[in-house]
Amino acid sequence: MIGPSGCGKTTLLRIIGGFYEATSGSVTLDGKQIREPGADRGVVFQEYALFPWKSVMGNAEFGLLMKGIAKRDRRQRVEEYLQMVGLSEFSDAATYNLSGGMQQRVAIVRALANDPAVLLMDEPFGALDALTREEMEIELLKIWKKTKKTILFITHDVEEAVFLSSRLVILTARPGKVKENIELSFARDFPITGGLKEARTLKTDPAFIEVRTNALKSIWGERAS
C-alpha cells in the first residue's frame, strides 16, 4: 500500500490491527469483526520495539511465553523461524549488538512465531541503509513464499512496493481512498533462490519500470492536487 504522506496508510493499518476504532464501516478477518488487537494479526513496525535486556531468543519467543506455551514448544517454533531468516547462530546474542537489519529480522520472527493469519508491516525497512533494505526485501519475499502468510505492507518507496506486491493499492491524498488496485506478478515470479543480482535484474526490466513509473505518476498527481 502506497500513497501521499498523511493520507491514512498507518491509520488504516492500526484499525486493521485493532489499535484504533473505525469511525465508520467495519473490518473483518475470516468473518469476524475486528474490535481489538488479537493473535490472528502480527504487527511489525518501523521501530524494532525489541527488549534490549533480552536475547534474540527471549525477544522472539515473548509472545508465545505470554500465551503460556511450554518452553520446549516455543523454542522449537522460534528456532525454525530463526533458521529461516539466517539468525540461528545468534539466538543467545543481545539484540543491541545486532545490526538494524538483524534486529528487524528478530521483530519479524517474533510476529511470525505467533502464527498470525495476517502480518501487518508499517514501513519496516524505512530506517535501514539501501543495501540492507534490498536484502530485507528479498528476505521478506522468501518468508512470504515459505509461510504463505497474507502480508499487508505499507511503504513510501514505490520501487519497493512494486517489487513486493502481488496486489498494489494506491491511495488518494487525504482523506485517503483507494485510487488504484493493481494485480502484479513480479513478487510471485521472483525465484525462491533469488538474490541481489536477480532482484536488480528484475528492477531494470521494462515491464517493471513501466509499472513503477505509472505508480509514481499516480502519486504525483495526488500531490499536485
Strand order of the largest sheet: 3-4-5
The major sheet is characterized as: 3 strands, parallel
| Amount of beta strand | 5-15%
| H/E element order | HEEEHHHHEHEHEEHHH
Query: What characteristic shape results from the CA principal axes?
Result: globular
Q: Please give the alpha-carbon distance between the first and last residues.
A: 20 Å
Structural class: alpha/beta
CA-atom Rg in angstroms: 18 Å
The helix count comes to 10
**Helix fraction bin:** 40-55%
DSSP E strands, number? 7
Question: How would you describe the oligomerization state of the chains in this entry?
Answer: single chain
Mean pLDDT: 92
Q: Which regions contain 5 or more consecutive residues with pLDDT less than 50? A: none
Short note summarizing the structure:
This protein has helices at residues 9-17, 56-60, 62-66, 71-84, 100-113, 130-147, 158-164, 186-189, 196-203, 206-224; strands spanning 28-29, 32-33, 41-44, 118-122, 150-154, 167-171, 178-183.
